[in-house]
């Protein structure tokens, strides 16, 4: 998984805001058949049957009771699918367009989550059979699932920790600066170091 250091930082706070996921999950693959075609998907599943609350005086998450009823499960199919194995070996697959919501009536294909619950993203790859590949039942397909424990998060509607909020804005700003002024990369690394974070 790419951006490992960034995920480790956020893992200590376990929080994600709704809408687009941050940090973005980006993965690289190895060992796939370069001649085959693959569909890449993501889903997000509950970690446990608990609901949480954030204790500001402790700066930590506490169990607040039983989980709310589960919401409809959705698979996010990467829009660039199907990939050839050769493409997957050469390029990174980014899930930057994944969007989250707590709206049970969502009609836009967003992944629906309960706020203040813990979740685990999962990445799946399906080997495409001939010209078709059913997405109705993963168990009927030749597929593999990848889970990264450091991506476990608590879904929130607002950042529950001031440091996370500030760092998120700072990271977004630095990403923009890095894309427009690559000559300042060294200065950015020094700035990130002040946050005990390494920009790779």
UniProtKB/TrEMBL annotation:
The keyword Transcription regulation applies. Keywords: DNA-binding, Nucleus, Transcription, Transcription regulation. It comes from the Eukaryota. Residues 19-165 form the T-box domain. One of its GO terms (biological process) is heart development. One of its GO terms (cellular component) is nucleus. Pfam families: T-box. PROSITE patterns: TBOX_3. It is found in: Nucleus. GO terms for molecular function: DNA-binding transcription factor activity, RNA polymerase II-specific; RNA polymerase II cis-regulatory region sequence-specific DNA binding. InterPro entries: p53-like_TF_DNA-bd_sf, T-box_DNA-bd, T-box_sf, TF_T-box. Signal peptide: none annotated. This is T-box transcription factor TBX20. It comes from Laticauda laticaudata.
């Amino acid at each position: 998984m790419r951006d490992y250091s960034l995920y480790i930082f956020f893992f200590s706070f376990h929080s994600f805001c709704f809408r687009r996921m941050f940090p973005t999950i980006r993965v690289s693959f190895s060992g796939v058949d370069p001649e085959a075609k693959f569909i890449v998907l993501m889903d997000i599943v509950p970690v446990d049957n608990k609901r949480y609350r954030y204790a500001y005086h402790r700066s930590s998450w506490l169990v607040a009771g039983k989980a709310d009823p589960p919401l409809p499960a959705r698979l996010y199919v990467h829009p660039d699918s199907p990939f050839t194995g050769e493409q997957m070996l050469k390029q990174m697959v980014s899930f930057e367009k994944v969007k989250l919501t707590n709206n049970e009536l969502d009609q836009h294909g967003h992944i629906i989550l309960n706020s203040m619950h813990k979740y685990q993203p999962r990445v799946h790859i399906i080997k495409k059979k001939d010209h078709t590949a059913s997405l109705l039942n993963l168990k009927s397909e030749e597929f593999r699932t990848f889970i990264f424990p450091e991506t476990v998060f608590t879904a929130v509607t607002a950042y529950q920790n001031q440091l996370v909020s500030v760092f998120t804005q700072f990271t977004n700003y630095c990403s923009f600066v890095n894309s427009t002024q690559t000559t300042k990369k060294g200065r950015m690394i020094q700035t990130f170091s002040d946050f005990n974070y390494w920009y790779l």
